[in-house]
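Hello again,

I reread your note about wanting to compare the complex against the isolated chains. To keep things tidy I'm splitting this into two emails, and this first one only covers the full assembly. Below are the input lines as submitted, including protein chains and any nucleic acid or small-molecule components. They are followed by the predicted structure of everything together. The single-chain runs will come separately.
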Amino acid sequence: MTNILVVGSGGREHTLAWTMGANATVYCTPGNAGIARSARTFDIKENDFDGLAALVRRNEIELTVVGPEAPLVGGIVDYWHDTGLVDQGHLIFGPTRDASQLEGSKVFAKQFMAEYGIPTAPFVIFSDPDKADQYVGSLLHDIVVKADGLAAGKGSIVCQSLSQAETAVDRIMRQRKFGDAGSRVVIEDFMPGEEASLLVVCDGTNHHILPASQDHKPVGDGDMGENTGGMGAYAPAPIVTPKVLRIVESEIIQPTLHGMNQKGMPFSGCLYIGLMIDEGAPRVVEYNIRFGDPEAQVVLPLINNVSDLLMSAAQGRVLDAVVTPRYTAACCVVLASEGYPRTYQKGFPITGLDNVSQDNVSQDGVYVFHAGTKEEGSQIVTSGGRVLGVTGFSVLDNPEQAFRQAQGKAYQEVPKLRLEGSRFHYRTDIGDKALHHFS
Ligand SMILES: Nc1ncnc2c1ncn2[C@@H]1O[C@H](COP(=O)(O)OP(=O)(O)O)[C@@H](O)[C@H]1O
Ligand SMILES: [Mg+2]
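Full-complex prediction:
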């Protein structure tokens, strides 16, 4: 069996560990209480490259898969190359620091898209807040103000009035709510349409497109309320029709890989394309440079051989991977701590986990991915805002029936999971958007 290390501690990393555990021995740093059931966990921080490298050498780990963006933007892949790990057969799946700018700098990403004619919203870049104010004052349409750098998913503000736009510029550029990430902003036109996420496994030159999915960012039903890290997801997303996918492949994926190659920063790893689709026409909202969370929870279980796919990509031969379908649909409902995405308390014991299947799901069924959990004595307690991802699966052939079964299975199990001394909150409409697209 191949030895694989997953770096990270959320629901995405649990999914990576669970899916790859079918054909590999999986290690995870630092992991969480659920990951500890699918992998050997070690308490090493994601930015402790020396510590991670030592673990990899000691355990003869052949492939390291990096979950979150911070270590990638921080150069973990470059470190693997520079210290000889890769030459010694310890491969790593993910982009270099340079290639990670597609997510690490929105200014870089937008200028890149403009240079290569990749469809996205028209935009202007500012480093002077007064000039940004002047610009937003001259506009008559809705805009989005985005901090250039990483801001934990909170640095993009959709503005429907002049005062909202001025407040956004002020918070990002003058108050520096996101630190240096706000020294420059992208101000772009609001794009109408419906969003979808596409995860594309790349080896620098070639790519393998995974089934499309849809995240649910706002905290409340009907997409009301504040944005979160993601309250749930489902896949496949029928809004991404075969026709839309063909356009995305030729107008977005191919030019992105070609452009990054031309710039001398070939993109290897998971390219996450956030799409806005309006009447069949896709445009890019943003790039991420890693698997989405919770998109990974519903996308990776749709295929067998996840470990083979990522290994092949890391070896620069992604097209050689044999990828076969597994589940036909998946729907993930996130159970969050009371108060999330604002302040919340941690440390509440979780009950009911044993009432929900925790073993390998063979046919259709449910699996609970852990995000913010940890073991405390004999109990599993909450340790984050997003706590669990209750994920239903189907193997039915009919797309609508498969989706309905996966969604039904997830929601059937949700009430069994409870907290002692607090309560979970969750959305009751994850996936309902899919229903408009089945006909
Ligand atoms: N140009 C745009 N038009 C419409 N909505 C947008 C636009 N840009 C961003 N958004 C909305 O804001 C969210 C966050 O923006 P995004 O660019 O993904 O930044 P981040 O995830 O880094 O915060 C998107 O998921 C989308 O809902
Ligand atoms: Mg985003």
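For quick reference: DSSP finds 14 helices and 25 strands in the chain.

B.
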